[in-house]
Design goal:
- This protein is mainly α and 169 residues long.
- The protein has a domain of 110 residues.
- The protein is built from five helices and four strands, in the order αααββααββ.
- Strands 1-2 form a two-stranded antiparallel sheet.
- α3 runs antiparallel to α4.
- The longest helix has 49 residues.
- The radius of gyration is 39 Å and the shape is elongated.
- The N and C termini lie far apart (93 Å).
């Protein structure tokens, strides 16, 4: 509201007196600060409501996933009887909630939560063989990586097992 409008609303004939007081007390700065506080509270309230709604949706999603896990566990023991065209009654496994369905649900939940849906891990020895390797050299590498172990053969002395003495399957 402007100073002139304020004066008209309060039936003040001269607005210059009110204007002088506004300048002296810094009404413009106070109005700006008040508007900033109102905006901040509005944003806080909106963010709080949004966070609450997201938390409710996440909890609902977890409840659905939990129900799916329970349903899948129940279905593991479920069978259905059916009769063929010759009147023979057959029994078949009944699976309404499959592990694949559960996997899809979990992937969607992970996406919703902003988490990766797949985590890949690769393990190696830190070496790359770029050409055809000599089989004997590969055996020597394996022998160096595998420690020798003793194998007890019942009563009597123990025998040391060597990779090069191992039988081929």
């Amino acid at each position: 509201m402007s100073i002139r409008a304020l004066c008209a609303a309060n039936e003040i004939p001269t607005w210059s007196t009110v204007n002088a007081r506004a300048n002296r007390e810094g009404w413009d700065a106070l109005r700006t600060e008040y508007q900033r506080q109102v905006e901040a509270k509005s944003l806080d309230l909106t963010a709080s409501k949004r966070a609450q709604k997201i938390a409710e949706i996440q909890l609902d999603a977890l409840n659905v996933i939990h129900a799916a896990i329970l349903k899948m566990a129940e279905d593991m023991d479920a069978y259905e009887e059916w009769e063929d065209s010759h009147g023979v009654v057959h029994r078949r496994k009944l699976m309404r909630m499959t592990p694949k369905d559960l996997d899809i649900m979990l992937a969607r939940f992970q996406t919703f939560m902003g988490q990766p849906t797949q985590i890949n891990e690769s393990r190696n020895l830190g070496i790359d063989i770029l050409s055809e390797a000599d089989p004997e050299a590969m055996r020597q590498i394996l022998a160096a990586l595998r420690p020798e172990r003793t194998v007890g053969l019942g009563p009597g002395p123990a025998e040391v097992a060597h990779p090069e003495k191992a039988r081929a399957n």
